[in-house]
Write a structure and sequence with these properties.
α1 runs antiparallel to α2. The chain is elongated and about 65 Å long. With about 90 residues, it is mainly alpha-helical. It has two helices and no strands.
């Protein structure tokens, strides 16, 4: 019984990790793609040019979705802590 609970907890942990990382990584990917296309079209090969827009984009995504991501992490942590007694048996 504890093995099934541990398996479900690990599976849910991977899902929560994916959902928490997806918005900032997706924003960085999209911004990097747009900046890369602009750099290719204009022949500007400055590596640091994409850093500031990515930083601002990730910051804005974290401001917008930070509460949602935090709530997701808090809920998972609460579930994991409440599952400890069932895992020890």
């Amino acid at each position: 019984m504890g093995e099934d609970l541990l398996y479900d907890l690990a599976r849910r942990g991977l899902l929560v990790l994916t959902l928490a990382a997806l918005p900032p990584l997706g924003a960085a990917l999209a911004i990097g793609l747009v900046i890369g296309l602009v750099q290719a079209a204009t022949s500007i090969n400055e590596a640091t040019l994409s850093f500031v827009p990515k930083l601002v984009g990730v910051f804005l995504v974290l401001v917008l979705f930070g509460g949602l991501i935090g709530g997701l992490l808090v809920d998972f942590t609460r579930e994991a802590i409440e599952a400890i007694p069932a895992l020890v048996r």
